[in-house]
User: Fold this.
Amino acid sequence: MYKFIITIDLQKDTRDMILARAPAAQKATREEPGCIAYDFYTCTDNPDRLVFVETWHDEAAHADHMEYEHTKEFIAFHEQFHKSLTFETINVASSTD
Assistant:
């Protein structure tokens, strides 16, 4: 499994424009082979921060996702409003870690 969190700090007052396009991108992505979960969150203590949490069967499925036109269009749209972006690959923690 390949899971990650993307945290995006946005330019002021741009969140709603991005969230207006998010449902179409989310629906198309959830239908892709290898997509386990694809969710967007807003940060409760910072209205200009979005958090994306994605889970894919493997890295290859995510690589395929990055080649779809709906993915490229959504990224091109929202990245113009970024102040910063953090990409963190995560794993389920166990008691032995």
In short: The radius of gyration is 14 Å. The first helix runs from residue 15 to 30. The chain has a mean pLDDT of 94. The beta strands are 2-10, 35-43, 46-56, 82-90.
